[in-house]
Amino acid sequence: MRILHTSDWHLGRSFHRVSMLDAQAAFLDHLVTTARDRDVDAVVVAGDVYDRAVPPLSAVELFDRALHRLADAGVPTVMISGNHDSARRLGVLAGLVERAGIHLRTDPAGCATPVLLKDAHGEVAFYGLPYLEPALVRGEFKVSKAGHETVLGAAMERVRADLAERGAGTRSVVLAHAFVAGGAPSDSERDITVGGVAAVPTGIFDGVDYVALGHLHGAQTLTERVRYAGSPLAYSFSETTHRKTMWLVELGPEGEIEAERIDCPVPRALARIRGTLDELLDDPGLARHEESWVEATLTDPVRPAEPMARLAERFPYTLSLVFDPERGDDDPLSSYAQRLAGRTDQQIAEDFVAHVRGGSGPDEPERGVLRTAFEDVRVDATVREVTP
C-alpha cells in the first residue's frame, strides 16, 4: 500500500504578518497532484489542519476544496486533530464525509476504531490518535496521572488490543500528534509541556507497522517505522534550514517499509543574516538573499537610524529585525540574556524565588505549586480555545 504522509498544514497561518494562503493553496494543489500521479492508496494528515481553533473563512474554504478534490480523485484520506485544532469543530461532519472516503478522527474515545483499507495483500488498519491533552482525557483513559506518556500509552494499549483481535496478516498504521523523544523542535510549534515533560518514548508505539507523526515542523526519521512529516511550509525563521517534504511510504505485504521524501513547493527562500547595518548593506556575499524573506540581526553597539527602511532598499522582503549589540562579558544586559537562554518558565520562576530569598530556592512542595500553576494556566488557555 502506498501512503502519502503529511501533517501540520496550519491553514490560516501567516508568516510574520505575510499571508500564506496562496502558498497553502499551492501546497494542497501539489498534494492532490502527487496523490494522483503517484497512485497513492491513502493520504494521512497527522494533525494541525488549521492554525487555530476558530479558523478564518478563507482557511475553511481552502480545506473544503482540498477534501472535495481528494474525494473526487478517489483517494481515501485519514486525518486527526492536532493541538491547534478544535477537535469538536473539525470532527463535526465526520460521519457524513466518511461516505466520501474522508475519515476524520478527532474523538479520543474512538482511537481504537480503525479505518480499514485494502490492497492486494489484505487489510491495513489505520488508527487515528488525535492530540491527547492529558488533563482533558485522563478520565476517558482512566489513568491516575495526567501526563503525555500515560495517556498516549493507554491509547496505544487500546490500539494493540484491537489489532490483536484482527487477522494475523492485518498491517497497521497509527496517526499521532505528539512530541516524541528524539525529535528536534523549532520555534513555530506551540508548547505542549505538562509538568516539565513533553516528550514520549518511541517505544510507546511498539507493535504497529508505521507511525505517522505530526506536531514537530521538521521532517524527521526517529526509527524506520516512526517518522515526522513536518509542516509543508516554513512558519518561523528557525526553519531556514528545513527541507519541506511529505513522506511517500510503501507498506509491503509483510509490513516492510520504504519511504521517499517528496519536496513541497517553496513560496520564497528564507535567510538569516547577521552583522552591523553597514556590513549587511555592503557585503557582496549576501546578494543571494536579496529576493529571500529575511531576518536581519543587527550587531551595531548603538541602534542605527531607520534600520528597516535602509535594509529594505537592498532586501525588500525583510520581515524581522532583531537587535543584538555586541557586548562584553561584564555587561549586565549580556549576562542576563545568557542566564535566560534556553530556560523554561518553571526554571525562571524558581530562579526568581531564589533571588528574592537571598539565594534560597523553592523546596519540592513549592516546586510542585509552581508546576501546578503553570499547568493550570496552560490547560485553561487550551480549554478556552477549543470550547465552542
Automatic annotation (TrEMBL):
The keyword RNA-binding does not apply. It comes from the Bacteria. Residues 267-355 form the Nuclease SbcCD subunit D C-terminal domain. Keywords: DNA recombination, DNA replication, Endonuclease, Exonuclease, Hydrolase, Nuclease. GO terms for molecular function: 3'-5' exonuclease activity; endonuclease activity. It holds the Pfam family SbcD_C. Residues 1-217 form the Calcineurin-like phosphoesterase domain. Heterodimer of SbcC and SbcD. SbcCD cleaves DNA hairpin structures. These structures can inhibit DNA replication and are intermediates in certain DNA recombination reactions. The complex acts as a 3'->5' double strand exonuclease that can open hairpins. It also has a 5' single-strand endonuclease activity. Belongs to the SbcD family. This is Nuclease SbcCD subunit D. It comes from Streptomyces scopuliridis RB72. The lineage of its organism: Bacteria, Bacillati, Actinomycetota, Actinomycetes, Kitasatosporales. The gene is sbcD.
